[in-house]
Design a protein that fits this description.
By secondary structure, the protein is an all-alpha fold. The protein has one domain. It is 80% helix and 0% strand. Bound molecules: protoporphyrin IX containing FE. Protoporphyrin IX containing FE (HEM) binds next to helix 1, helix 2, helix 3, helix 5 and helix 6.
């Protein structure tokens, strides 16, 4: 297969989207942390999130164990994909990668634990989380396995798959916002349980499709570049 460089404009758009989503992820995790640690800080009777705040306050420790490492996921994730950083400071990439994978494992395990308890979106949400949360952990385990075997082309592909699912949590927020706004336009103030599960399915599915398209589109280039890496 012939190597070709991905379109630069497309790469720029993708990076902007990743940074935008990582900022949303960081913002929601930060907000949840503040609300759990200082109850009442951001909630008022008129706040549409007041129900959600009460829900997560019921299992504050588990939620904090989920959102704190999720912040690391959002900060370290994009850095792991910066080619210049990987080439110039491979040690930093390896150490940051270990922290990223440890944090991601905690996020995945605590996420699945929450899904087996009472969820906002009910069975619909539980099913989406069980499927994609399990795939998230498998993808990251496969990424680590290939890195240890120095199979960097496969390592890259599995990292993209796992990262895309974690980042989907941020994609889900604008989807929820759209459902909420659409219902308001029809004169109905919806409850989060009405659209949570559907938003999870749409977000995870879209992101998984996007990851597979990107992997296939960049496969020849990435494989050629990785083949040129000096053996250590
Ligand atoms: C890595 C990025 C992630 C971030 C930033 C993140 C963030 C959050 C936040 C902030 C909450 C509290 C809800 C809120 O404040 O709106 C939450 C809840 C939750 N997360 Fe995550 N999460 C991430 C990944 C995951 C993954 C991979 C899973 C699946 C294993 C997952 C499963 C859940 C579940 C089940 C809940 C509880 C929802 C409910 O009770 O209805 N999260 N997450």
């Amino acid at each position: 297969m012939q190597a070709m460089n991905p379109n630069r404009g497309l790469v720029r758009i993708l990076w902007s989207a990743v940074m935008f989503l990582a900022s949303i992820g960081l913002a929601v995790a930060t907000r949840r942390t503040i609300v759990l640690m200082k109850p009442g800080t951001m909630s008022s009777a008129k706040n549409p999130a007041v129900q959600l705040d009460a829900h997560f306050a019921n299992h504050a420790t588990l939620t904090l164990a989920h959102v704190l490492p999720a912040m690391l996921f959002m900060v370290l994730g994009p850095l792991q994909f910066v080619r210049g950083l990987r080439a110039k400071y491979p040690q930093v990439h390896r150490w940051s990668g270990r922290i990223f994978l440890t944090a991601s494992t905690v996020v995945g395990v605590t996420g699945l634990t929450m899904a087996f308890g009472k969820t906002i979106g009910g069975v619909d949400e539980k099913a989406a989380i069980t499927l994609f949360g399990t795939f998230f952990l498998i993808a990251l385990a496969k990424a680590l396995w290939h890195a240890l075997r120095r199979e960097f082309a496969q390592h890259r592909e599995w990292m993209i798959r796992g990262y895309a699912i974690g980042l989907a949590v941020a994609t889900i927020r604008p989807i929820m916002g759209t459902f909420f706004a659409a219902a308001l336009l029809r004169g109905h103030a919806p409850e989060p349980k009405e659209f949570f599960g559907t938003a999870f399915w749409i977000g995870f599915t879209l992101q998984t499709i996007a990851a597979e398209i990107w992997i296939n589109y960049t496969r020849p280039t990435a494989a050629a570049q990785l083949a040129m890496l000096p053996a250590k």
